[in-house]
Amino acid sequence: MTKRSRIPLLIWVLAGVALSLFFIPLVSLIIRAPWRDLVDILSSKVVRDAFKLSILCSTIATVLCIVIGIPCAWVLAYSSLPGKSTFRALCTLSMVLPPVVSGVALITALGRRGVIGQFLFSWWGIQIPFTVVAVVIAETFVALPFLILTVDAALRQLDPIFDESARVHGATSWYSFRRVILPSIRPAVIAGIVLAWARALGEFGATITFAGNLQGRTQTVPSAVFLALERNRGEAIMLSLILVAVSLSVLVLLRDRWITAVTRGGSW
Amino acid sequence: MVKLSAHGSTQVGEMRIAIELNVGAGEVVGVIGPNGAGKTSWLRCIAGIIGLNEGLITCDETVWDDPATKSWRTPERRGIGMVFQQPALFDHLSVRENVAFPMRARGLSSSLLEEKVEELLRRFDLERYGDTRPSQLSGGEQQKVAVARALVGEPKVLLLDEPFSGIDVEARQTIRADLAKFLSSFGGACVLVSHDSHDVDALATSRIEIDRGQLRQS
């Protein structure tokens, strides 16, 4: 008896509904896209500005995620910090928060009258909301948990004997982390970075709330899609397709090996 | 002259493990006992992977671990070479890079290092595997790489934790012979842990038996 014939028909039907839920909307984009206007849309100033800003801000946000996220994962995985599970939950909070709530939280903290923002403004005249910096902060806020969670899980699943072996044989904890631990979990690190970048690129709710939607200044591709829906549906569909293409590329880049590495703990 | 002294106790789970060990230069102390007796914990304390609850570990008058005064020497500063029960080799590095690791970790990289690494690869018949990843080697070959890595830094203390576990009988005899030859000229202090009295009889100059964390006889 083959594996397939052991699956009841009802299960096949329900699985088909699930696959259709993904398949039909995406195919609809392709069917309704104004392909004749592709070049005009892509070469318009609005779209070029949105792309430039999206690539720049998502890249900076990803770099920030790497610089602060990997140390955070290291602390969570290997330290004996009291209340670690609470901190772990805090780090992943923005993953489950509705993005617009993240935006409201960021404004409350860093707005001109915010908890921290009021001092930034009154002491140094620094205003963060509705600037490119706000876009980067919003994207970092939502992307960071993807990197932290992935790397933290991989670190916790890595056999501690490798770090012990490195330390006994002359490596400081920093050297061991750089030359032994991180290379050992490279698939998870790369998967975490790529997922963080893709999340940052596709971020909308927190960005539009905290940074606004100012064309040429804070309008990213997702924000441009939102605006285009009211003004020019064809443009919205084309921009959406480009974001779908980017997301597909991320999946192809990750491939099964790295997706499995993430779920299995991220080591070779 | 090397003198390693370890006295005290540590706690591993529910078991309190007493440690009582003096090893001089050129000596190989065999610590023998059944699985779960606490033998590996002795080595982990000496290596600095875990700490004593009470007692003192010194090497040549240098305090490595003294809970009473909170003195603690980190593992990388103890000048130890260790062979773990599983080879614990780094698979993202080649065999040659694994053997060179202790020297590079200490910031040493020179033609002398390369000579030393090649000499060890030759001694353990690993030359042809220099550019191979450890996972492509057999268990016996991996353990030889682990021994070479432990020796490259000319440690003053060598810790061997069940160095023949997981190795087939034939490879075991070869490695045991290689190790016996090496230990006969090793000037440092060596602690060998095994559950197999044949290994201890073949390699050790004295033996200590432990069971359930406690010394049975010395």
Description:
The complex is a heterodimer of chains A (268) and B (218). Helices cover 77% and strands 0% of the residues of chain A. Chain A is built from 14 helices and no strands. Chain B has a domain at 1-78 and 188-196 and 204-218: 3-Layer(aba) Sandwich (Rossmann fold). Chain B has six helices and eleven strands. Chain B has helices spanning 39-47, 95-105, 111-123, 139-152, 169-183, 197-203, and strands at residues 3-12, 15-24, 28-32, 54-59, 62-66, 71-72, 80-83, 157-161, 189-194, 206-211, 214-217. In chain B, helix 2 (95-105) packs across helix 3 (111-123), helix 2 runs parallel beside helix 4 and helix 3 runs antiparallel to helix 4 (139-152). Chain B is globular, with a radius of gyration of 17 Å. At the A-B interface, helix 9 and helix 10 of A face strand 7 and helix 2 of B.
Overall CATH architecture of the domain at 1-78 and 188-196 and 204-218 in chain B: 3-Layer(aba) Sandwich
Total individual domains of chain A: 2
CATH fold naming of the largest domain in chain A = MetI-like fold
The shape of chain A is globular
**Which whole number gives the mean pLDDT of chain A?**
89
Give the low-confidence spans of chain B: none
Q: Specify the CATH class of the largest domain in chain A.
A: Mainly Alpha
Distance from first to last alpha carbon of chain B: 23 Å
Low-confidence stretches of chain A: none
CATH superfamily of the domain at 1-78 and 188-196 and 204-218 in chain B: P-loop containing nucleotide triphosphate hydrolases
Query: Which structural category fits the helices and strands of chain B?
Result: alpha/beta
Q: Report the strand count of chain B.
A: 11
Report the strand count of chain A. Answer: 0
Instruction: From the alpha carbons, calculate the radius of gyration of chain A and give it in angstroms.
Output: 22 Å
Give the fraction of residues assigned to helices of chain B: 25-40%
Q: Which structural class do the helices and strands of chain A define?
A: mainly alpha
Reported CATH architecture of the largest domain in chain A? Orthogonal Bundle
